[in-house]
Write the structure tokens for this entry.
Amino acid sequence: MGILIKKIMCAGDNTAPHDIYIHGNRIAGIDEKPAGFTLTDTVNGKDKMLIPGLINSNIHTYMSVFRNGADDLAFDDWFFKHILPLEEKLEPEDAYWGSMLSIVEMIKSGTTCFGDTHIFPDETVRAINVSGIRAVVSRSLTGKDNTDPDGTRMLAEAKSEIEEWKTTERMKFMLAPHSIYACGEGYLQYVRDEAERLGVGIKINLSESRKEFDDCMAEHGCTPVAYADKLGLLTPKTLAVYCVYLTDSDIRILAERGVSVAINPSSNMKLGNGFAPVSKLLAAGVNVCLGTDSAAANNSISMLHEMNMAALIYKGVEKNAGVITAEDVFNFSTRNAAKALGLEGVIGEIKVGTKADLVVIDINNEHFMPATNPISALAYSASGSDVDTVIVDGKLLMDKKVLKTIDEEHVFFAANRIAKRIGLR
């Protein structure tokens, strides 16, 4: 199978339109037809721009069925009084449809890969397999120690998924101890050892709320970051999510250990948790990436929307218009995210040899006019409706705004049926 994206401008390259040759699942040539290329599809690049597929570093896809169901609430009320009771009402297949709903939204808004944390074995991976999208999957893990029956069951489920799907190129895995407050010290060490044995990374919610920070100081005499570091959880394969409450010492630890940090500004803002100190993280050399969090916490899981939020919020918070640039948030959503998810050099760039995860943006519209700075337009004025075509692993998942692998009306029907059954109106 060979796709030619003909005469298209590439993001960040203002020289001239390029011909992009996709052979199999990789970019095989730029302006030069590769040997053995057989044309099967052509994408017209006129009035279009090509970008690397956007990467959502942190999401819980199954939770899209909770969208608009627990809004305007403080974090503890939102999570403990509303979300957890709703999760108790879910059946495993509900998670499949929730994941499919999230994937529909992500594809239509230009996301080609996501870092997912779920609680229902096999359902998210089934949705990934059916839809054709790329993902790095983690089963959420909680427990007291290595003898906790629930904790050992969850870890066994995670390992079973890894074993079953390890040969599927579009799926990679991490282990995800939920947080320092949902996992005992012994269990965190247990998960750490298993991650090292399996050769996978660790994804953990870290220092998300003021309560988590204060409780850790009271119980352990140190910050959540310092506590996680003491347990050996922080390595270059670690993705720390949120990181809102950080001391200068915490930032040094994250930088020295090579930890990536996934910021989620819209979710943190909506839940009243505050914002990660991004300028300090960047100054220290920390790899920062961007996530939407779930549709239960953010409502929108469009990465273009999240890029806009990230580009604007920090300017106001720090009273510095240059603190986060359009190019920064573009990198957070492409190259940096690929590195954070263990896919550096595989996706996140338009280069010969990388996987063909690409998005064609329609720039012949009011959002991009006048056509002077496409990267700024992506950060400040673009929307999901500007996405025209989406390619993942060399396959067309959306062509001229039409989904090719998902019956979205069926997904919408299932999502509404689930919401009604669990009591959302």
Summary: The chain has a mean pLDDT of 95. The first helix runs from residue 75 to 88. The longest strand covers residues 13-23.
